[in-house]
Design brief:
It is a single chain. By secondary structure, the chain is α/β, with parallel strands linked by helices. It has two domains: 2-151 and 241-279, Bacterial extracellular solute-binding protein, family 7 (D-Maltodextrin-Binding Protein, domain 2), CATH 3.40.190; 155-239 and 281-319, 3-Layer(aba) Sandwich (D-Maltodextrin-Binding Protein, domain 2). It is 47% helix and 17% strand. The protein has 14 helices and eleven strands. The strands form three sheets. The chain has a five-stranded mixed β-sheet, with helices on both faces. Helix 3 links the parallel strand 1 and strand 2. Helix 3 (45-60) runs antiparallel to helix 12, helix 6 packs across helix 14 (323-338) and helix 8 (180-188) packs across helix 13 (300-321). The chain is globular, with a radius of gyration of 21 Å. Residues 1-26 have low confidence and may be disordered. The structure holds D-xylonic acid. The site of D-xylonic acid has 12 residues, from loops.
């Protein structure tokens, strides 16, 4: 396997400089294996970008690092895989920020409803100083954050009715991610939220355990949610970033050169993830309609009402997180918007 990968990498300009086929500065010829797992399936932009990351890392390390990729929660759910990284029994996962808040509570700020106005501003804030500060907070939890990827703006689907105004959430059994802020925000809107791992969601909707869920359009389409859901409403209530996480124990065991390679590759593959994801949204929205889903957008007035309803929940979480930290995020957003 090592030989095959080294041979593939041989054609690459960057990989051919340095120490021949010794595999980086250690030169031991020992192959390090990364098990990288995600919850989404193998048609999602996240997985396609993960394959790109694998290719870049294997080429640039001359095969000294080998990456095995797993999708569809084969290695567990976001929370379980993150715990496995902490224990050093898995090397990479790319969860949404919401489950990360169970490890570093400050991450909840990224899941404040209606926080980011658009993807460009999100990129600037996350890829800037504030984003880096948040990545640094992961170290205490035995995790290294290499880059932000994109899950995207979340929209609601359900089997009961179109969500046009806040009142339509009333009594809706809605699956949420495992995150207290999500629970409290949807409760405030009148829904009946249930936290659940992503891998259990399809069956829960199929069996009617929940009426609906919320996720970005690419997930709704590529995971086949239209088979078990009738309504999609583009509430765009939360912009969900992904964080590319590596086990700190594994990262610390890499050579400096390898640390740079895995980090740069995570940023580059993340750009591909964002690009594919954004290209896909309009097309997949059309596909959802073609599959017979009832599709509706939200008026600015209805959105403003939702913002008002969740505001007390945000105030409460801002206290918990620390007002200064939250203000820093708001300031970075304002600065990005002004550019
Ligand atoms: C996939 C999850 C998922 C997230 C969720 O592992 O749980 O709803 O949006 O895409 O990260």
């Amino acid at each position: 396997m090592v030989l095959v990968l080294a041979a593939c990498g041989g054609g690459n300009d960057d990989a051919s400089e340095g120490s021949g086929n010794e595999g980086g500065s250690e030169g031991s010829g020992e192959t390090k294996t990364i098990r990288a797992g995600i919850g989404l399936n193998d048609s999602h932009p996240q997985y396609l970008a993960l394959l790109e990351w694998k290719k870049l890392v294997e080429e640039r390390t001359d095969g000294a690092i080998e990456v095995e990729t797993y999708h569809s929660s084969q290695l567990g759910d976001d929370r379980g895989m993150t715990e496995a990284l902490q224990l050093g029994s898995q090397e990479v996962t790319i969860p949404s920020t919401a489950p990360i808040a169970n490890f570093v509570p400050e991450y909840s700020v990224f899941d404040f409803p209606f926080l980011f106005p658009n993807e460009e501003v999100a990129d600037m804030v996350l890829d800037g100083e504030v984003g880096q500060k948040f990545l640094d907070k992961l170290e205490d939890q035995n995790l290294v954050g290499l880059a932000y990827w994109e899950n995207g703006f979340r929209d609601v689907t359900n089997s009961e009715r179109a969500i046009e105004t806040a009142a339509d959430f009333e009594g809706l059994k809605l699956r949420t991610m495992e995150n207290d802020l999500h629970l409290d925000a949807f409760s405030a809107l009148g829904a009946n939220p249930t936290p659940m791992a992503f891998g259990e969601l399809f069956t829960a909707m199929q069996q009617g355990t929940v009426d609906g869920q919320e996720n970005p359009i690419p997930t709704i389409y590529l995971q086949g949610f239209y088979e078990v859901q009738d309504y999609v409403s583009t509430t765009h209530h939360i912009y969900s970033p992904f964080v590319f996480l590596m086990s700190k124990e594994f990262f610390d065991g890499l050579t400096e050169e390898q640390q740079t390679i895995v980090t740069e590759a995570a940023v580059e593959a993340g750009a591909l993830n964002r690009e594919l994801n954004r290209e896909a949204v309009a097309e997949y929205a059309e596909e959802l309609k073609a599959e017979g889903m009832n599709y509706n957008d939200i008026t600015p007035e209805a959105r403003a009402e939702m913002v008002e309803i969740v505001q007390p929940v945000l105030d409460e979480y801002a206290e918990q997180i620390g007002k200064e930290t939250v203000q820093e995020v708001y300031d970075a957003i304002a600065a990005a918007e002004a550019e």
